[in-house]
Design a protein that fits this description.
This protein is mainly alpha-helical. It contains 14 helices and seven strands. The chain has a single domain (4-344), classed as Glycosyltransferase. α9 (201-209) packs parallel to α12.
Length: 350
């Protein structure tokens, strides 16, 4: 387990990369994408840098497009890609709920609520007939028919966070509730609904991390591909057939293990990836163990953020520590009554 001083040093390393206007890129003068920026902002909140986290969220809110989307990439504060991805549109809901759990800042939640609502309304519009969500918008504004498992698992969590935020605002969102129910069923029962990216470890653990798969089913899923992805003593591969372990994937796996009730295994993974830690508390993105080389040669804010969020979840240090590890912590679990074994799937929250 990382010490409190180590976590604070890592949070400080993230803060060092933040621009004066609040933007949180991968690293100073590098690219910024909305999903990873939210991840880094959550880590700032864990470390007590609430003003910096608020600035990052406000930067994103100021750049949301009228349709609820963001550009897939920004550089120097400007859009560097016309693409609009569904997982980017949804993830601010997770950051806003996390911020509420940490700080109880009602003013910030109220300020971000219209942005969150537009983003999740777009996600619902991008839902395909089978329950999965298209990964991106086409130039004509219609959803791409391809759905990605990892992104959809993240959206399952985002919709549940959005419903929790809606309850705070007193604005019920029945469309979101229907969408997350259908999405949860699809994630659990229809692997054919998603593009085959089974080489990637995220497709393996993210349905557990996002909360769609829980309990014994989660433990079975993680056990099934353990040997394909986990390198003892080094962490998790990003891709099953590459000799490359990555820090963010390893920490996300730790969160999934904790969500599945495997705390000791989660601690082992967080410890295993510490070979990526730099002297200033930042983290290298990955390590090609066949060549004994770090690759790429970069220390990313989102890798450091994944470490902070995993350390917080495993220590229970902050009021938001259960967000990624307690499948019943959010108000709506997204289980259909007619789904097989629904009663043994996810419990509903209050």
């Amino acid at each position: 387990m990382l010490s409190g001083d180590q976590v604070r040093q890592t949070v400080a390393s993230i803060a060092e990369e933040q621009d004066a206007d609040g933007a949180l890129p991968w690293f100073r003068d590098g690219q910024l994408d909305p999903w990873d920026s939210v991840e880094a902002a959550m880590a700032l909140d864990v470390g007590g840098a609430h003003d910096r986290a608020r600035a990052a969220y406000r930067w994103l809110a100021d750049r949301q497009r009228p349709d609820g989307s963001w550009a897939a990439e920004y550089r120097g504060g400007r859009e560097a890609s016309p693409a609009a991805e569904s997982n980017h549109a949804g993830y601010l809901a997770v950051g806003a709920w996390h911020s509420w759990l940490i700080s109880g800042d009602e003013e910030l939640v109220t300020e971000l609520w219209p942005t969150v609502r537009r983003g999740l309304d777009l996600v619902v519009r991008m839902q395909l007939p089978g329950g999965a969500v298209g990964w991106a918008l086409r130039p004509d504004g219609t959803p791409d028919g391809t759905a990605l498992l990892t992104g959809n698992a993240s959206l399952f969590q985002a919709l549940r966070c959005g419903i929790a935020l809606a309850a705070l605002q007193g604005e019920a969102q029945p469309d979101w509730e229907l969408a997350v129910t259908d999405l949860g069923t699809t994630l659990r029962t229809r692997p054919d609904a998603f593009a085959d990216r089974s080489r990637y470890s995220m497709d393996w653990y993210y349905p557990v991390l996002g909360g769609a798969v829980a309990g014994e089913a989660a433990r079975d899923r993680l056990a099934a591909d353990w040997d394909r992805f986990v390198v003892p003593g080094l962490g998790a591969r990003c891709v099953s057939d590459h000799p490359w372990v990555t820090g963010a994937e390893t920490c996300e796996l730790a969160l999934a293990l904790a969500a599945a009730g495997q705390h000791d295994a989660a601690m082992e993974q967080l410890a295993a990836m510490q070979h990526l830690r730099h002297d200033d508390g930042s983290y290298w993105t990955g390590y090609v163990f066949a060549d004994d080389a770090r690759w790429p040669i970069e220390r990313t804010t989102w890798t450091a953020a994944a470490v902070v969020l995993a350390a917080d979840a495993l220590s229970g240090a902050s009021p938001a520590s259960g967000l990624f590890t307690d499948p019943a912590a959010l108000p709506v679990a997204g289980t259909r009554d007619d789904e097989p074994d629904a009663a043994n799937s996810l419990p509903r929250g209050p």
